[in-house]
Known about the structure:
This protein has helices at about 15-25, 40-55, 65-75, 85-90, and strands at about 30-35, 60, 80. By secondary structure, the protein is of the alpha/beta class. Strands 2-1-3 form a three-stranded parallel sheet, sandwiched between helices. Helix 2 (about 40-55) links the parallel strand 1 and strand 2. It starts with 13 loop residues before the first helix and ends with a helix.
Amino acid sequence: MCSTILTGGARSGKSSYAEGRVAALPGRPCYIATAEIRDAEMAERIAHHRARRGPEWREREATFDLVAALAETDGDGPRLVDCITLWLTNLV
């Protein structure tokens, strides 16, 4: 198993770069989303991300229980957690 952490500024292209890397791995990719829709801007950003990924991605929401989402998707192909910072913010 390999894990990679990508860092960078807000809206710097981390998500699309990570999606490309994960999509290139064997198996159907799973996107584990930690963001919550709290306003129109976030709703637009999430819709943009979903459209960019397309239907070949499985999606799992993990606003708070990231450990459960990782356990439930273990062994089912590559996974992308987006974003650890938002997840930590949700917990606080």
